[in-house]
Each structure stands twice: as C-alpha cells, then as structure tokens.
Amino acid sequence: MNDRIGGAAQRPSLDPRAPSARHFIANQWTAGEGEPIEAYCPADGSLLGHIAAGGAHDIDAAVKAARAALNGDWGQLAPAARGRLLLKLSELVLRDVERLAWIEALDTGKPIGNARNDVKVLARYLEYYGGAADKVLGQVIPFDAAHSVTVVREPHGVTAHIIPWNYPVQMFGRSVAPALAMGNACVVKPAEDACLCIVELGVLAAEAGFPAGALNIVTGYGHEAGAALSAHPDINYVSFTGSPQVGALVQQAAAPNCVAVCLELGGKSPQIVFADADLDRAAATVVKAIAQNAGQTCSAGTRLLVERSVFDAFVRRIATAFEQLRVGVPADDPDLGPVISAKQRQRVQRYIEQARRDGVPVIAQTPLPHDLPAAGHYVAPIVFGPVPTSHPLAQEEVFGPVLSVFAFDDEAQALALANGTDYGLVAAVWTRDGGRAARLSKRLAAGQCFINCYGAGGGVEFPFGGMRRSGHGREKGLLALEEMSVTKTVVHFHG
Ligand code: NAD
Q: Known catalytic residue: 41?
C-alpha cells in the first residue's frame, strides 16, 4: 500500500476477531459459500482484504438466526434494555473512531476527515435511537363505556437491510439502529464495493452484548446475497438504499411475500438561487454539496438553477471555487477523493464525454494533481452550463462530481425546472424573500426542502426519503421508528 494513502501509523488494523471473508451470523463468524471477493482501495488500487461471497444458503442461515433471536432472548428484552445495548454500541464506535474511520476511508477512498465524520454520525444514530427505544408510545382511542381500545406498536419481525457503498457506516446506522430500537432482528447485506467497516461492527455488537441473532451481517454480491435476501419468504420488511433500477428489482422480489419495502433511491436535487440571496454563502454551500464524497451522494445538489440577473456573477463564484478544489488521497484530507471503482469512473466519464460531444459549455473544471496514484479512480470535478433541460446531464443521476447549471427568469420557471425530473429527494431555495421560500417549499417535489442552507440529507433527527423515483418510506428522525414497526389495535369488550 502506498504510504501516502494512509501512513503506517494510520493504516487500519482489521480486527482479528472479524476474520477475513466471514459472515457474522448468530454472533459467530462463518465462512461464505463462494470464492472470497477482493477488497481494493479506490485511492491507489491496493488490496485491503477479502470479504465473503454470500449466497442463498448464508442468507437462509442468517434469517433463521434472526428468527430464533426474536423467539428467544432478543424478543424478550424490554425496550429500555434494547436502548442500553444501542447506547453501548455507540460508545464502542466512538472508542474505536480512529480505527474505524481509517478502514472506512481506505475502503471508500474518501478523505479521512469525512470518514471520521461518517463514523461519528453512525455513533449518533445509535445514540439517538438508543435513547428513543423506550419512548415509543401507543394510543388510547375513546370509544364507549363497554370497550377499551388501544393501539400499540410492534416490530415487523425479521428485517432485511441492503446498503450501498457510498456511506456504508452512515447507511448502516440510519437503517439498522431504528430497526433494533423497535425490537426487530436484522439481516444486513452491505455493498460488495465497500463493507469492511460494517463487518467490523459485528465485533462491536457482540462486545456490546447484543444477543445472538439480533444483528447478522452477510456480505457478497447484490445479484446473489442481495437477491436471496429480498426474496426470502421469512423476511417481514425490506429496507433498501441504492439505485432506482435495483430498488425496483428488490420490490419485485419481495412482492410474492407481501411485505413492506422502504426504497431510498437516487436523486437529481436542485439548488435554486434567486438574485436576492446571500450569494457568497450560497456559492460555498452549492460547491460543497456537489464535491462532497466526489458527488457520490444520493442527495448531492447536482442541478444549480440561477436567476438570470445574477447568473454570470454567481457562476463566476462557482467557477473560482471549483478551480480551487483539492482532489487527493484520504490521508491528505482533501475536498474530495476518488470515486469508488473503475466502473464508476467510466460511468461518470461517459456522461462528461457525451456532454462535451453535444457541445454543452464547460464553466469550470478542477485540475487534478499530477502525483495522484495511477491506479486510483480519480475524476476531475466539472461544471457544465447552461445545460439543455432534456440533456442526460439535466435528467439522470451521474453519481460523480459533475454540476449542471441552468438559468431562470422568474419563480414559476424556477419551480418548473426544479420539478422537471423524475426524481424528488432534496431541494434548496436561496432567497431573502420569506414568502417566496414558503411558497416554493410547498410546491417542490422533494422529501426534504432546505431554505438558505443545504444539509445533503440533513441531520439524524430530520425525516428523510424520496418522492417519485427517489423512492418511498421514511428513515431518520422519530418517523423511522414508525417505519420500522406496525400498529396493532386491541379492542377489549369488558361490559
Ligand atoms: P446499487 O443499487 O447498485 O446497490 C445497492 C445495494 O444493492 C448493494 O448492496 C448491492 O449489492 C445490492 N444489490 C445489487 N443488485 C441487487 C439485486 N439484484 N438484489 C438485491 N440487492 C442488490 O446502488 P449503488 O451503486 O451501490 O449505490 C448508488 C445508488 O444508491 C445511487 O443511485 C444513489 O443515489 C443511491 N443512494 C440513495 C440513498 C438514499 O438515501 N436515497 C443513499 C445512498 C445511495
């Protein structure tokens, strides 16, 4: 491994208690069915380790372990005790934050500062839902003197969690923590491209004291382990985060079992900048919201809509900031690192080359340093504009550091442009006109709407999820506890 990527002092020590190429099932480490999959660092192509290639047999073993946990110790635990386990796991994650952050940084190629933040956000999810576990209240329905009617919340049962590679530990926290808080038993299938840190969480869960089977982790390819998990007849709920294409497959696979599916999919999120906005603040945020994680963020602000009267002035700010972005290796803590894989790099470059061929003007491009490792998957961030509204850059999720810019003349045109894609995940409005901000926030097709700020997904506390092809179901905040449970109405005739 190149020392610049993570010097000897920072190289991750994969926990020997999480043996290479093993699944975590019923608090045991078990070998996978298939040939182990090699895990490479996207920053320099070096081999980091191996993960197990799970198949239908491994998934079945994990689902059986989860079912046994529900019928055993885990199912009997009081909500407060579940909460304490989550809080303990949060403490252990924070204790190991540096080690976990380095594993995450090298596995995904992201800057070490971002990886450290991701691990802290995971700890915060565990803390938030740990604290909430015993505060989920039911309802009493006023009816008549002869009946008592109550509504209580119960776990779904065995829940499946299919997780992408862009923010592995954050996505784990977001999906799994509320499920455990509500008393579900979880089977997690992380992405084959980046899951080393999630595998380590199995060790910490066992150390925290989670009963066997409450949390199970099966690694492997999507079309094998992921497909077997989505279709398993003893799964009661599926939480999927990933692309719309695979989300549709997962929903189809789960349909014969008639179970609920939560789909957290992609986006093409607009940032609408009006002439009266604080342009400096808006420009800095717009650049961060596309550069972060090399643009591989579902809620990245990929479309910039600027009022024509300030178009040139605003775009100049964006161009200057893009020219100064630092692309680099995780240890240098740059603004952005490589994309996840050669395949992803080719995909992003295809969009860039097509836009160039189609004559879409380039506003700015970040120069790549000459000394980047040759085997890393680096993409030079680029801004195109004005982009024709029917162009793929205006409609499709690139999932790379590519910003598309558009001009508008008035509020109505801004709204039409903003809502003019199939997606509906996040939107931002930059204006000092409170009435306009309120009007637009009511009419924007987005699961989250930011006014004069952009949280790229927002905090742990803010409910998150899509409309249209960005998916359905809600994670984060207290709403996730409803998502991860079902109500039962009890009608008692007592005369
Ligand atoms: P992906 O859909 O290719 O893979 C996501 C997960 O699904 C992986 O674990 C993969 O192994 C698994 N998978 C693949 N094929 C499967 C199948 N046939 N059955 C079951 N599981 C299968 O997505 P990706 O490329 O890993 O992630 C990028 C996408 O995820 C982008 O579209 C991005 O916008 C989206 N995303 C959305 C959110 C959100 O919260 N809305 C968050 C992160 C990423």
A: no
